[in-house]
Design brief:
Layout (H helix, E strand, L loop, with lengths): L27 H15 L2 H20 L14 H65 L5 H39 L1
Helix pairs in contact: 1-3
């Protein structure tokens, strides 16, 4: 028996089932990108120059052209131009506000990421400070003298040299170990 319910099936992939299944509402992200592009375009000198030229040509045409060719005569105080500019402003203001809201959201996310990064840096700095204090305490216990920066640096250099020497000895032993089987195989 055929399904009469309009509920989507869980065993079938989601997709377009017909011409009318398309979502009639535009994506918020797409509309947001449009509003940002619109606001970005309106904020350019090219837009301002273009609007100035458009209005100047409109006024000149409807002032100096022969009366039968005027479509928005001066005698009516350029009513059509006023309506067009009002319409443009009524759409421009909300679109600019939407673009600003999106920018505020991005700024908020960036501020939160910066705050988290600053917290991690502070935690790392505090950890390193505790480690340095622990090293000073250990060196003070070992050397029975007050640990200054210079004493600590000297002790750390000595420890580093010991570690380097130990690593070098281990590396030589490893090379010798690898060389023994190769020499033993050649003498047989």
């Amino acid at each position: 028996m055929a399904r009469t319910s309009r509920q989507p099936s869980l065993d079938a992939p989601r997709g377009r089932s017909g011409m009318l299944s398309r979502n009639p509402q535009p994506s918020r992200d797409r509309f947001g990108r449009f509003s940002e592009a619109f606001a970005r375009g309106m904020g350019t000198s090219g837009f301002l120059i273009g609007m100035t030229v458009f209005v100047a040509v409109w006024l000149l045409w409807n002032t100096f052209a022969p009366v039968p060719l005027q479509f928005d005569p001066r005698s009516t105080n350029f009513t059509l131009l006023t309506l067009i500019l009002s319409l443009q402003a009524s759409y421009a203001a909300p679109l600019i506000l939407l673009a600003q809201n999106r920018q505020d959201d991005r700024d908020r996310v960036q501020i939160e990421q910066d705050r988290q990064r600053a917290e991690r840096n502070l935690a790392d700095t505090e950890y390193l400070a505790r480690e340095i204090v622990a090293l000073r305490m250990v060196v003070t216990d070992v050397s029975d003298e007050v640990v200054t920066r210079e004493v600590l640096r000297t002790e750390l250099r000595t420890a580093l040299e010991r570690l380097d020497a130990r690593a070098e000895r281990a590396e030589r032993a490893e090379r010798a170990k690898r060389a023994e089987p190769a020499e033993g195989g050649a003498s047989r």
